[in-house]
Amino acid sequence: MQKKQSKLPLAVFLLALMELWFIFMVGKWIGGWATLALLIGSGALGAWLIKTEGRKVWQQARQQMEAGQAPGHSLLEGLCVLAGGILLIAPGFLSDIVGLTMLLPFTRPLYRLYIYRWLERKVRNGQFSIYGGSNRR
Predict the structure, then answer these.
(1) Which of 40, 63, 72, 89 is deepest in the core (most CB within 10 A)?
(2) What is the number of alpha carbons within 13 Å of residue 77 lying toward its C-beta?
(3) Residue 84's closest CA among 137, 56, 122, 42?
(4) φ and ψ of 6, to 5 deg
(5) pTM
(6) What pLDDT, in 10s, does the model give residues 38-69?
(7) Three-state SS sequence of the chain
(8) Consecutive 10-residue averages of pLDDT for the chain (137 residues)
(9) Among 78, 102, 76, CA closest to 88
């Protein structure tokens, strides 16, 4: 039986190449210093948004737990905030666009739904398991 090779390394390489090309094109269009300022500014914005949006998501999760509810919805929100912030901090404009949309409260539900459906498929196919919990010894 032949093992299926992962396409992830190729995808990461192609995305990095696209980011570099896009940075180069923006640099030609607005200049090198302005491009550098945009990249630094987007990183700072990402750090700030992780802090502010992350705090909101954490408070929401705490409220759900205090009310006796499972914070699954809030955990997916938190995952989106974390991933979006990391994408904004990483240098590149394409990753900034995706990261910003993951951090904005009105576009985040699209990513949350995608992640939920992806996890659901993994669980149904038996490709995702959770170990530990209160019965662990």
Answers:
(1) 89
(2) 17
(3) 42
(4) -75, 140
(5) 0.73
(6) 999 988 888 888 888 788 888 888 888 888 87
(7) CCCCCCCHHHHHHHHHHHHHHHHHHHHHHHCHHHHHHHHHHHHHHHHHHHHHHHHHHHHHHHHHHHCCCCCHHHHHHHHHHHHHHHHHHCCCHHHHHHHHHHHCCCCHHHHHHHHHHHHHHHHHCCCCCCCCCCCCC
(8) 71 91 94 93 86 83 82 82 88 90 89 88 79 57
(9) 102
Show the tokens assigned to 61. 């999760």
Polymer length of the chain: 137
Q: What angle do helix axes 32-66 and 93-103 make, rounded to 10 degrees?
A: 30
